[in-house]
Amino acid sequence: MVYLTKLTPLLVIPFIIKIWNAIANIGVTDDLAFLEKKKTQVTNLVISLGLPLFLYFTIINFLDGLYLLTSLNFSLFVSGILVLVTQFRQKFYIARFIVIITTTLIFTAQCLLFRNGNELLLLVNIIVAIIYYSETKFIVFITAINALCYFWIRYDAAYNLPMHGTLSNARVLFNVVCGLISFVVALQYFKFEQMAAQKAIEEKNAELEALNKTKEKLFSIIAHDLRSPIAQLKSTLDLVNRDYISKEEFHDLSHHFTKQIDQLQDNMNNLLTWSQSQLNGIITKPQTVNASIIIQEVIDLLKQQWQAKELQIHFQPFEDAVCMDPDHLKLIVRNLLSNAIKFSNRKHTIVFNHSRNNKELTISIRDTGMGMPQDQLDMLFTSDSIKSTHGTDKERGTGLGLKLCKEFLDKNNGEIWAISELGIGSTFFFTTPLHK
What we know:
The chain has helices at about 1-25, 35-65, 65-90, 90-115, 120-130, 135-160, 170-240, 245-280, 290-300, 305-310, 325-345, 375-380, 400-410, and strands at about 285-290, 310-315, 320-325, 350-355, 360-365, 415-420, 425-435. The protein is of the alpha+beta class. The protein has 2 domains: about 1-205, no CATH class; about 255-435, Heat Shock Protein 90 (2-Layer Sandwich). It has a 5-stranded mixed β-sheet with strand order 2-4-5-7-6, with helices on one face. A two-stranded antiparallel ribbon has the order 1-3. A hairpin with a 3-residue loop joins β6 (about 415-420) and β7 (about 425-435). The two termini are about 45 Å apart.
């Protein structure tokens, strides 16, 4: 019994929220402009909160023998239903016009006939008109009509008796409080939605600002790190063509140019991959692949780079199959191995290791190179900025490699992290789901 008592609010509250959202979104579509959407939602909520009150007063006044007041309250109820139907058919301006005109006429009639305190709601009508409409002439018209009706009621109350008797003070107070509560709830909802939208806009602006900084960094990379080796190669070829240097001298320089072109190719691949992911999003096509075969392909692909630094690669093949996009796995291994080569000292060793549990395979790549300080390690996968560090042989990069690894692993249900010690080396780990 105690368990059911505790469970009931947990079931009721989501149901109430669901009903509230369903009522607020009558007639609302995704292509509706933000401001129009909020106006529509506020109209739906105000009318929906008012309908039970209109029906309640219709029944009470009928039982009290106040048939004229009954008809006026029932007219408000019918008008409310008509507004919601019009909203559902997406005739929003007609619905708002019905709200303003109907409430102005009926509130004025009720106040003149019964002194029920609804003249304050005529002032609310002015505020609603200012919120709802942008046409100056219409706002002036509605404001003038409601203000005149308000002063007419106040003047008539000062000098004339009501035509059909006065309601009790309790009823008048109840009318005013109910009307004001409905209006306050609607305005608070409107304000809450605007604040949420403003927060979303600020977050989007922050993302755009970060993206702009990224683009500036990329243009800087393209202008310097990518153009520089091409310019050097072109100028050297010009010297050869003009016989300023011999072919033998050019042959001695070719090793240097080969290394630069390899770096250039890696950087271009990362730039193109990152640009495509930003424009089209990252689309994954998971397949059952042998991770060992992919790793060996990448080791062979980068053979010229690690042999140029006289490095040793220790890798023991294994048979575990993973469920992952093979192109993404190849990109991740290529970037991590490229980084290990880049930051390793000559004649050192890079070691691949692997381990597994029931769900995932963990692969690690360890180097004994430069390492990194703790503050750099902490920001490695969380910073939005793009930072490139030169390698042990002054190799240049784009700073996009680890960012791409993180984004592609996130899309493939994997993780990446690292441990490092300055001057000792770094080990990068990543996981990928095992094939079931």
